[in-house]
Backbone:
């Protein structure tokens, strides 16, 4: 089975090289890399030329930004049997592609697989709300809890039928700076595709809480909160899950205040405010769509 790895990238070089090194270290060699390069210059040309000596790289220049747009562009070049979206700053641990290939070969009833995303430096979730220990079939509540795009692998026929919503995700030019991968997963589930979450298969990704400045993390939490709230308002979720997810940032804010951790309390509060703003905007959008029908 051949993997097609679609990598949207902008403003990163060293991180992309580390990702390429992790691909070079894989014992499974049947893969292609599709780099959708949204940089305004040629900073990745030498890097792509060097690693092209070791594995196939298609380097596509695309001036219009947008992570979802870049992934849709990558879809049209897929030649593999399995598709994945490694972030330009994530790493694949040794042996990962072999394990995933075995999974799809041995279990033909599954259309997609979601791995767990751990920090680069330790075996803890890179994104605190995402991931758990329970491996199981992915339904909507489970998908909302574990879906991270860099850990999604699926059969290529899906990308020929379902594309990303280009109004969602980083660089889309809209307020909805997140929720793109969960939206994609939900539309796959709507269509009847079956995904499995395996908590023992790991993709590595930097934990933003460790690497971002306070200001950058505040901006991130607010932006991701808006996308999160918009998603909650525009997708049919169980009311219990909806209430829980809407209120969770505020509960965490109170918990961190109780523990005298003002920095983390600020993050959760900002995320909660963003979630509320996005949720109200999503409700408005949902009403407008219903009225237009």
Residues:
């Amino acid at each position: 089975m051949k993997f097609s790895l679609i990598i949207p990238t902008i403003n990163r070089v060293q991180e992309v090289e580390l990702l390429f090194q992790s691909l070079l270290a894989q014992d499974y060699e049947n893969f292609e890399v599709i780099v959708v390069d949204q940089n305004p210059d040629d900073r990745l040309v030498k890097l792509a030329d060097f690693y092209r000596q070791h594995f196939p790289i298609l380097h596509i220049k695309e001036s219009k930004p947008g992570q979802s747009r870049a992934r849709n562009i990558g879809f049209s070049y897929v030649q593999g049997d399995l598709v994945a979206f490694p972030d330009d700053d994530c790493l694949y641990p040794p042996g990962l592609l072999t394990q995933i290939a075995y999974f799809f070969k041995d279990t033909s009833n599954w259309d997609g697989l979601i791995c767990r995303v751990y920090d680069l430096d330790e075996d803890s979730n890179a994104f605190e709300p995402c991931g758990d220990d329970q491996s199981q079939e992915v339904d909507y509540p489970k998908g909302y809890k574990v879906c991270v795009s860099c850990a999604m692998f699926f059969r290529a026929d899906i990308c020929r039928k379902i594309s990303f919503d280009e109004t969602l995700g980083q660089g889309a030019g809209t307020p909805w700076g997140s929720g793109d991968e969960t939206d994609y997963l939900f539309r796959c589930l709507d269509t009847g595709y079956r995904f499995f979450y395996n908590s023992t298969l790991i993709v590595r990704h930097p934990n933003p809480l460790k690497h971002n400045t306070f200001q950058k993390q505040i901006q991130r939490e607010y932006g991701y909160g808006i996308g999160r709230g918009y998603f909650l308002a525009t997708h049919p979720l169980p009311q219990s899950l909806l209430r829980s997810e809407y209120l969770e940032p505020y509960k965490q804010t109170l918990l961190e205040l109780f523990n005298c951790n003002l920095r983390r309390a600020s993050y959760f509060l900002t995320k909660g405010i963003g979630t509320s703003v996005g949720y109200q905007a999503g409700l408005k959008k949902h009403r407008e769509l219903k009225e237009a029908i």
The longest helix spans residues 262-292.
